[in-house]
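User: Can you recover a sequence for this backbone? Please restate the input before giving your answer.

Assistant: Of course. Working from this structure:
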């Protein structure tokens, strides 16, 4: 069965992350257009700040990661065991830590910063310290919320999202696609910047933050539930079933 047969779907993830989503969409019968609108690169300091912070990880009560990119860099740099507990914003983010043999102590039920903040424990009476490893540009909901609860938060840049060159021919195909998929707010805004006012019929978003950005920019939006690649695929299949091809 090919529930996405006859559909053209744009995958906007970075090149090194697009494979699993693109492959799954292809298996479901979609014609996939890979148009990476972000590239993941090292921080401006080459990762020195993150490396220094993790070299003395035991001074932290918690190490918090908010994306698989940050989690991979923490897993690569965290040398052996640590007394710090680990928190990840969702199962997909926890994956690289678990794959490296690290225990993840907190994964919230809602895979967004607000969900993690809701479930995060209060600091000890004597005070507590958190290392938050994240992208260079990110929302301040989590660090501000943790600080408001009494935590001392060290925010360290783990990676940067930058705009890669876009192939004009691939962009032309994307502009007339049926659906575009977004796995982060940054991909929504970058895609809109490069594609201009021509939007596909719908956008499938992995979570509420990317969905809100897509709606703001004029996309007809569907949202994954749960907020994962599997949830995103399910949402795309449901969209296809409810919206038969016009040709």
């Amino acid at each position: 069965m090919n529930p996405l047969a006859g559909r053209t779907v744009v995958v906007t993830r970075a090149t090194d992350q697009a494979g699993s989503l693109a492959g799954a969409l292809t298996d479901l019968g979609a014609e996939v257009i890979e148009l990476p609108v972000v590239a993941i690169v090292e921080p401006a300091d080459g990762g020195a700040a993150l490396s220094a912070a993790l070299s003395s990880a035991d001074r932290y009560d918690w190490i918090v990661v908010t994306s698989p990119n940050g989690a991979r860099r923490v897993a690569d740099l965290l040398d052996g065991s640590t007394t710090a507990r680990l928190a990840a914003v969702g199962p997909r983010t926890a994956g690289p830590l678990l794959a490296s043999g690290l225990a993840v102590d907190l994964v919230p039920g809602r895979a967004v910063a607000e969900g993690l903040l809701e479930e995060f424990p209060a600091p000890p009476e004597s005070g507590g310290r958190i290392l938050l490893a994240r992208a260079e540009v990110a929302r301040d909901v989590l660090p501000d919320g943790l600080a408001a609860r009494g935590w001392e938060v060290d925010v360290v840049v783990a990676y940067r999202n930058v705009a890669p060159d876009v192939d004009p021919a691939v962009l032309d195909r994307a502009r007339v696609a049926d659906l575009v998929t977004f796995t982060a707010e940054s991909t929504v805004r970058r895609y809109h910047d490069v594609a201009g006012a021509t939007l596909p019929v719908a956008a499938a978003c992995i979570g509420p933050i990317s969905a809100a950005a897509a709606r703001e920019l004029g996309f007809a939006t569907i949202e994954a539930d749960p907020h994962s690649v599997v949830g995103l695929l399910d949402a795309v299949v449901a969209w296809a079933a409810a919206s038969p091809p016009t040709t």
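That completes the design. Strands lie at 8-11, 31-34, 39-41, 62-65, 85-88, 128-135, 151-162, 179-182, 202-205, 221-223.
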